[in-house]
Write a structure and sequence with these properties.
seven-stranded mixed beta sheet, alpha/beta, 36% helix, Metallo-beta-lactamase, Chain A, binds zinc ion, 12 helices, globular
Length: 316
């Protein structure tokens, strides 16, 4: 609990100096101004991909945006550019220099290869506050190693004549345990353990905001903790693979997937118990099936509202 409190205090101290204005263009500014008055929770899918390099689907990343403050879950490749795209679509909270807090589900590369981007690009675009990152054991070492890998860049940007600040590239990395791990005036964030093959730590997250409860599974096999944390939640964002596609996979891959991921059939059972108001299929492994096929697979065993997530979808 103590590192969390310390982190929280640091944020409180840093926020007043963090809100400098930098512009990404007049058009985007206008759109942002128009939507800023809505002040509601928005869930934005920044990337719905997997390790498959699908050009239509960026690496896994979701933003929960509350009162124009973004909270990111995972940082797959493309995360910063997708945030910029969402900002251009009118999500004022996803202005790149506002990306200051992220929660990592686990350290698989498809969920973290955008991490260096999230550290460095918003800083270059004048973010002053250090990035706050919460994640499993190993996130501190990954952070330190990334900063080391980019030390030449950081040095040149600080000392080479570029107008830059001396705080925005820094990262406060927090290694978490299950329970409430973050709280501010917009959100209470709870981490819960999920099972993802041989990973020692993999987390799902529950976000409570003034108007919504949002649960994201992270990568996992069917996990009771997802059901317990949703129980009628507003939005459940859950990973899934196609049961039909799975049948065509080689046996060694079937063995792997069944220990690391959740089938459409299994997800239907989870959703039937968890009763989310909206189920969002996420991190979809299609293996030759279509989005409509996958939705049908789920709907065959689940009566509730379900959609197949795409990059830059916004809920509600
Ligand atoms: Zn993944
Ligand atoms: Zn994974």
């Amino acid at each position: 609990m103590r590192p969390f409190l310390l982190g929280f205090l640091l944020i409180a101290l840093l926020i007043p100096v963090a809100d400098n204005a930098s512009s990404n263009g007049e058009g985007a500014k206008q759109t942002a101004k128009q939507t800023a008055v809505e002040k509601k929770t928005q869930v934005v899918l920044l990337g719905t991909g997997t390790p498959n390099a699908d050009p239509e689907r960026s690496g896994p990343a979701v933003a929960v945006v509350v009162n124009d403050t973004p909270y990111l879950i995972d940082c797959g490749p493309g995360v910063v550019r997708r945030a910029a795209a969402a900002f251009q679509k009118g999500v004022a909270g996803l202005k790149v220099d506002k990306l200051k807090i992220a929660f990592v589900t686990h350290l698989h590369s498809d969920h973290t290869t955008g991490y260096a981007d999230l550290i460095l690009t918003p800083w270059t675009l004048e973010r002053q506050a250090p990035l706050q990152v919460y994640g499993p054991k190993g996130i501190k070492a990954m952070t330190a190693n990334l900063l080391k890998a980019y030390r030449e860049d950081i040095h040149i940007r600080l000392q080479g004549g570029e107008p830059s600040n001396h705080t925005g590239y820094k990262v406060l990395a927090h290694e978490i345990k299950p329970g409430v791990i973050y709280q501010d005036e917009n959100v209470t964030v709870k981490a819960f353990a999920v099972q993802h093959g041989k990973w020692r730590e993999a987390y799902g997250y529950r976000f409570e905001t003034p108007d919504k409860i949002i649960v994201i599974s992270g990568d996992c096999v069917p996990s009771a903790s997802v059901i317990e944390n949703c129980r009628g939640c507003d939005v459940l964002i859950h990973e899934v693979y196609s049961t039909v596609g799975f049948a065509k996979r080689p046996p060694e891959w079937q063995n792997y997937h069944s220990k690391y991921h959740t089938s459409s059939r299994q997800l239907a059972e989870i959703a039937t118990q968890a009763q989310p108001k909206l189920l969002v299929l996420y991190h979809q492994l299609f293996w030759g099936t279509s989005e409509a096929d996958l939705l049908k697979e789920v709907a065959q065993y689940y009566q509730g509202r379900v959609v197949s997530g795409r990059d830059l979808d916004i809920y509600p």
